[in-house]
Amino acid sequence: MGQAKARRAAAETGRAWPRDQVPATKVPTGSPRDWLRNEGRKPNENVPCGTCTACCSAGYAIAMDDGTTLKPRADGTCPKLIDGACSIYEDRPLTCRRYDCRRYVFAGVSPDDHVGRHLSRWDLTADKFEDQVFLLSCRLALQHNVTSLAGKCENDLSKFAFQNAGRYKEEAAALLREHGKGRTFNETMNFIRRGFQGARAPTI
Length: 204
Ligand code: SF4
Ligand code: SF4
Fold this sequence. Notes:
The protein has helices at 4-13, 32-38, 94-98, 102-107, 129-144, 154-164, 169-179, 185-195; strands at 27-28, 62-63, 69-70, 81-82, 85-86, 122-123. The chain is mainly alpha-helical and 204 residues long. Strand 4 (81-82) and strand 5 (85-86) form a beta hairpin. Helix 5 packs across helix 6 (154-164) and helix 5 (129-144) crosses helix 7 (169-179). It is elongated, with a radius of gyration of 18 Å.
């Protein structure tokens, strides 16, 4: 959460930092597998958030480092979000430092909230075959376990997808080899999605 660069720019120009902007140009997510290797190991200071503050405005209660909880304002914004910028940015809690909404894009789920509505900002980067296999494996993990996952929140769904993707790696690779010829990755994913049946079709 938080975007130092945009915040600094807003402070320098004296302008309010746009609270709720989805960029006109999509931002590349970076490699999903590289991302997963780093996930949870250290605070992620490198989310290219730009001017987005969706997760600071999504009504989340924020666990602070001292064990207290920061409750959102009535409009869903964090009380530390002032004039469109995090007023404690340099000292923001680990909860915020670790938050990275790209997890939903990689897992193929979309929270039905403010953050979910901003995921269209990302351009899913999957040029390498291994990345494509990983992304499709996540979706297969969700698809094959749709019944047991009913009612889980998107955070738990994404965790499940990452933890179980390895079980579906071979199937994903075979599907991509079979259907990927002559298609872009997105076309292949759309083609495969049309073949899925299930109560909760994954977002691919
Ligand atoms: S919703 Fe995502 S892109 Fe937007 S500020 Fe939060 S982590 Fe960054
Ligand atoms: S403390 Fe509040 S405003 Fe600052 S990054 Fe976290 S959620 Fe956003």
